[in-house]
Design brief:
About 30% of the residues lie in helices and about 15% in strands. It is of the alpha+beta class. Strands 1, 2, 3, 4, 5, 6, 7, 8, 9 and 10 form a 10-stranded antiparallel beta sheet that branches. Strand 3 (about 115-120) and strand 4 (about 125-130) form a beta hairpin. Helix 4 (about 175-185) runs parallel beside helix 10. The chain is globular and about 85 Å long. The protein starts with about 35 loop residues before the first helix and ends in an 11-residue tail after the last helix. The protein binds protoporphyrin IX containing FE (HEM). One of its GO terms (cellular component) is cytoplasm. Belongs to the catalase family. One of its GO terms (biological process) is response to hydrogen peroxide.
Length: about 500
């Protein structure tokens, strides 16, 4: 008779109690092992399968659960249920990350930081997969893989390569704005609590009258901005490669819950057609003077996941996950990401990854997807597995349909993303430099000089000169400071 109340017995994965867990079955105390010790096999075999593919980018990360609370009424812009009324609370998950490093790399590297939010709303999970920067390096998704290769390891040396990075950036001046932010002190934030987050992309809002607005999301840290200097960040990489993970975990464990204010910039559809900056260009910001920040609510992180692998490694965020009242925009990068993330997650976690508890919608899901590896939710039971059918009452709700959208053109083609009118790569990074106080300007210059000093090989001067021209175009003082730091003679008349 088994004692079923006694749950403290060590068992195999199939529930058989272990009689022994430290010595393998052998022929004689000093003899070889027996093939029949299936517990040994199970332990070794499961261990061999512990690793899953790390994220192809943003592999190193930290996350916490929390709550989003609405503080201001924005229902004139969106009917999304999450914003339904002031005071409404929604459970959420926020994962921070670095971009280029592997899962075991230091989280104080100079790199943008990921800022990926999952809101568990009644209309499904809404994911906002942003960064701590309002812009990005490229403006067409076809360029993403090439760009990321330059941030990873050189195929020959297996090391990071400043030459690859600056070669790419110098050949793609659309990257200048983001590179300027990356090289500023904001490229080395003091952990994850002291930085802002951005949707970066433009999304759309749809209100209950079916009117569309364009929107950018901002998350302003209530802890205040705090950055490492370059030297401090470099030192921290060896002192504590998990500094940001530790800082987040310890603060939440101690009840010091980090918070961010969600704010939005809103543009009407009519304005989007005439605004002097392409509102769907991810390398540009919408100046706050034209589109001031409006308050929406606050997020608070207040619970560390009990198990990192379960809730963080297996978390799957996707820009495709929008909900009623929130839609996409024509931003080409966003359009590319709609496809890329679920595709990556089917590879990384398997076809049924949405059933993993951290990804599962806590309200309900209904569909006719069946089977596949690791199907663990009952697989629809006896219910019909096709649509339409005469047996169940599952329906499509047409009230969720977005209003029709008039597009700018009906001519398909490969348009030059940097054609006339789309090729000002310099004004906004120049403005950024001019906005910095002198000490920050000096840091920016010395960080760029330090990073560009790593360029080597036969194309060194070609790459340096090409990139220097971009810095000069952004601001002659910036260009001159960098040239001087690199020991390159420039005619001082260029400053006049
Ligand atoms: C076309 C451009 C892009 C492509 C194709 C792309 C692709 C990817 C892929 C495949 C992943 C791994 C997903 C996973 O395995 O779960 C990822 C992660 C991520 N990406 Fe992108 N990405 C792009 C641009 C961006 C931009 C512009 C941002 C920010 C504004 C961004 C922010 C992130 C973040 C935060 C993560 C980590 C999400 C997490 O914490 O799990 N990406 N990206």
């Amino acid at each position: 008779m088994k004692d079923l109340d006694n749950h403290n017995k060590l068992t195999t994965a199939s529930g058989t109690p272990y009689a022994q867990n430290e010595d393998s079955k052998s022929v004689g105390s000093r003899g070889p092992l027996l093939l029949e010790d299936f517990i040994l096999h199970e332990k070794m075999a499961h261990f061999n399968r512990e690793r899953i593919p790390e994220r192809v980018v943003h592999a190193k990360g930290s996350a916490a659960f929390g709550t989003f609370t609405v503080t201001h009424d924005i229902t004139k812009y969106t009917k999304a249920k999450i914003f339904l009324e002031v005071g409404k609370k929604t459970d959420m998950l926020l994962r921070f990350s670095t971009v280029g490093g592997e899962k075991g790399s230091a989280d104080t590297e100079r790199d943008p930081r990921g800022f990926a939010l999952k809101f568990y709303t009644e209309d499904g999970n809404w994911d906002l997969v942003g960064n701590n920067t309002p812009v990005f390096f490229v403006k067409d998704p076809k360029k993403f893989g090439d760009f990321i290769h330059t941030q990873k390891r050189d195929p020959y040396t297996n090391m990071k390569s400043a030459t690859m990075m600056w070669d790419f950036w110098s050949l793609n001046p659309e990257s200048l704005h983001q590179v300027a932010i990356l090289m500023s002190d904001r490229g080395t934030p003091y952990g994850y609590r002291h930085m802002h987050g951005f949707s970066s992309h433009t999304f759309s809002f749809i209100n209950s009258a079916n009117e569309r607005f364009y929107v950018k999301f901002h998350f302003l840290t209530k802890q205040g901005i705090k950055n490492f200097t370059d030297a401090e960040a470099v030192a921290m990489k060896s002192q504590d490669p998990d500094f940001a993970q530790r800082d987040l975990l310890d603060n939440i464990d101690a009840g010091n819950f980090p918070r961010w204010d969600m704010k939005i910039q809103v543009m009407t559809e009519a304005e989007s057609r005439t605004y002097h900056i392409n509102p769907f260009d991810l390398t540009k910001v919408w100046p706050h003077a034209d589109y001031p920040l409006m308050e929406v609510g606050t997020i608070e992180l207040n619970r560390n996941p009990d198990n990192y692998f379960q809730d963080v490694e297996q978390a799957a965020f996707a820009p495709a996950h929008v909900v009623d009242g929130i839609g996409f925009s024509p931003d080409k990068m966003l359009q590319g990401r709609i496809l890329s993330y679920p595709d990556a997650q089917r590879y990384r976690l398997g076809a049924n990854y949405e059933q993993i508890p951290v990804n599962r919608c806590p309200y309900f899901t209904n569909n006719y997807q069946r089977d596949g590896q690791m199907r663990v939710d009952g697989n629809g039971g006896k219910n019909p597995n096709y649509f339409p059918n005469s047996f169940d009452n599952i329906t499509v709700d047409a009230s969720y349909k977005e209003p029709a959208q008039e597009l700018e053109s009906n001519v398909a083609g490969w348009y030059d993303r940097n054609a006339e009118g789309e090729n000002d790569h310099y004004t906004q990074p120049g403005n950024l430099f001019r906005l910095l106080v002198p000490e920050q300007q000096q840091h920016l210059i010395s960080n760029i000089v330090g990073a560009m000093s790593g360029i080597d090989g036969p194309k060194r001067m070609e790459i340096i000169n090409r990139q220097l021209c971009h810095w000069f175009r952004a601001d002659p003082r910036l260009g001159m400071g960098i040239a001087q730091g690199l020991g390159i003679q420039i005619d001082p008349n260029m400053l006049q």
